[in-house]
Amino acid sequence: MENDSEPEQSCWAYLPNVCLSHVFWWLDDRDRSRAALVCKRWNHAMYSGSLWRTRTITFSGRPSRSHASEFESALWYVKRFGKYLEHLEIKFLNPYNAVLTRKFQVTMRGLLSRLGKCNSRLVSLTIQHLELDRLVWRNIIRNQFIKNLIIFLKGMGPHLVHLSLKGARVTLEEGCELLSSLSYLKNKSFASEINIEDFFSHHLSIYSSPLFHQTMSTFRNLVILTLNYNCISDELLDILCEHNAHSLWTINIKCHIHDPHGQVVWGMSWANLAKRAPKLKVNFFFERVMKHDSLARILLAEIPLRSISLRSCYFSDPDWSMRPTLTNLLPAYKHILQKLTLEFNNSHELLDEELLQLVLSCKKLFFLKIWAFLRVAFVERLLQNQAEGKCTLRTMKVRIYTNRYETIEEDRMLRDIFRRYRDLIDSELNYFVIAYPMM
């Protein structure tokens, strides 16, 4: 007698669609393509929009056979799944020569053109560290890439919420044209997050440019703005106050030694913005701008400062002292400062007491990172004050610089301190403390 019953199916055949989509989510492109050949149901699962909403496309900056298919796979993805895309990040890693930048430019032209035609969902675009001022970017290649990007942004501007072109290093005119493309035809952009840190080339005084001010006046819904201090002016703060006070929450400002930072910005401009945008938090990141006179001109008491990072990048200058900054400048923010990062070479002055008093005076401080010449006893005193409730740190990262190659004694003392305060550390702190030879 013949058995007409169907063969028993695998349990995978009964897997709910939501579970199947989750399995596909963990697979890379090659495995997804292979899995899609199993049956019609799995093939259908591969085209679930939720799998393709977020994408990071990475291009290697060096010639290699293993990277030869990067450009082709990027175009393959956009052609098949670009219509689902909502969050796109493009990485071009340290281009080695003009041949690769040319290939990247041609690929991006096709990718952006295709995406502009098939996609109406993109809300986030990130293309960072292009460094278009490098010699590997020939003028014709650079100009064509910027032109293609401007055309793309004009089409995507109405629904693009987040744009990061950090590290693009373009001219003032190119940068303003790129930003203005978001408000194409409407003269208004409702993008909420813009990252233009290191967006402009070095040494440009963007703060004095009427073109930049006109460009920034088109943004009407900024929530997070990241930029360099060479863009900050009374005019910019007034523009933010007029058009974005209702939405603005965070301004991240980087101040680098090679960027112009000698402009005068009045405290009244900061005070007006802080008053109109009561939820505003300002975060400052200084790189090698360490002299008190320079910092005092920038760090005005009216700024609603929540986080500050001061980094000297291992450089030491006996002509500057951190003491006035620690004792006179930073205490002005003791009622609002929440995060403090200090990395400097203070081999010419001891600052243990000044650092401790600053930390204790900042009642809302929860994040502390210090890389400096310190005594090991500084860590113990800090932990003791934490145990007594005199400070409320949640993160404590300390690198104790020494002038010796061997740190055996410091390591032993730090282990003893850790043992004595282990219960406190385990229950309250993200704790990392080491001794580090600075030779």
UniProtKB/TrEMBL annotation:
GO terms for cellular component: SCF ubiquitin ligase complex. Gene3D superfamilies: 1.20.1280.50, Ribonuclease Inhibitor (3.80.10.10). CDD domains: F-box_FBXO39. One of its GO terms (biological process) is SCF-dependent proteasomal ubiquitin-dependent protein catabolic process. This is F-box protein 39. The gene is FBXO39.
